[in-house]
Amino acid sequence: MKLENRNAIVTGGSQGFGRAIVEAFVREGANVLFCARDGESLARFEQKLKESARAGQRILAQTCDVSSASDSEELFRRADDELGALHILINNAGVYGPKGPSEEVAWDEWCRCIEINLYGTFLPCRHAIARFKKFGYGKIVNLSGGGATNPLPNISAYAASKAAVVRLTETLAEELRAFRVDVNAIAPGALNTRLLDEVLQAGPEKVGADFHARAIKQSQEGGVPLDLGADLCVYLASAESDGVTGKLLSAKWDTWSSLHTRKNDLNSTDIYTLRRIVPEDRGRKW
């Protein structure tokens, strides 16, 4: 088992992709504390996992708003008390936020999306980093997505927050390289989860005709399997990927399972990062 005896926190872990991550971590032997805002769904999922857990494996669930400083502090305090040394943080909690022309969406909803997606990534990182530095080792995986690498008209808060998460990931990776703490971001692909349902419900008037049409096609033909991104999280949380850091990886499109054999190339280039494209990159001489 790739994560045996490793202790992990997974945010947004009660449904959708977060649920798939928690299930994969439990299968791979990790002790897991997962959180979400819906206490009822957390309790049901916790009970289900405990029924199939191996002897001695610790599975804990806690209600938490990751954008709340006090909630995040309490989450990590419980990890200290009931898990012990922390090895892994998966920042999965996130929302699409308001949909529609940027000048028309509700300002408080736009801000709330930034709070959950960006603050709700940075706050857990701060708590984890303090512990990882003392331990001299750690793994952080942040959730990115299509909003980080492509414009998303009419879903501007999500796009801005996810691009920020990737740059935060790269920055923390450089800060923490000397402490043997790996920080990466992943794009799990187009998933058939509640976020897709939100796009379908919003309609073409709010999210745009092209984006809505792609969502309909995805719902009919199926999205990227949740297990693919969950397996990438397992890889990045395992010892096998030690030294792979500061990268944005696509679960679907990148050959990530062998990246540990290419660490020299990864550490000496800007492969799998967000960078400015200049004319020469596209064969132009301006």
Structure description:
The chain has 286 residues and is α/β, with parallel strands linked by helices. It is built from 11 helices and 7 strands. The chain has helices at 16-27, 39-52, 69-82, 107-135, 146-149, 156-176, 194-202, 204-207, 209-221, 226-237, 263-268; strands at residues 7-11, 31-36, 59-63, 88-91, 138-143, 181-187, 248-250. A 7-stranded parallel beta sheet has the order 3-2-1-4-5-6-7, with helices on both faces. Helix 1 (16-27) crosses helix 10, helix 3 runs parallel beside helix 4 (107-135) and helix 4 runs parallel beside helix 6.
Mind telling me the C-alpha Rg? 19 Å
CATH topology tier name of the largest domain: Rossmann fold
Overall structural domain count: 2
Order of helices and strands: EHEHEHEHEHHEHHHHEH
Distance between the ends:
53 Å
Average the pLDDT over all residues and give the rounded result. 94
Name given to the CATH homologous superfamily of the largest domain: NAD(P)-binding Rossmann-like Domain
- How helical, in percent, are the residues? 40-55%
Give the count of helical stretches.
Answer: 11
Q: Which structural class do the helices and strands define?
A: alpha/beta
Oligomer: single chain
Major β-sheet annotation? 7 strands, parallel
The best one-word shape is globular
Name the strands of the widest sheet in spatial order: 3-2-1-4-5-6-7
pLDDT below 50 for ≥5 consecutive residues: which ranges? none
Q: Beta-sheet strand percentage?
A: 5-15%
How many β-strand runs?
A: 7
What is the CATH domain class of the largest domain?
Answer: Alpha Beta
CATH architecture of the largest domain: 3-Layer(aba) Sandwich
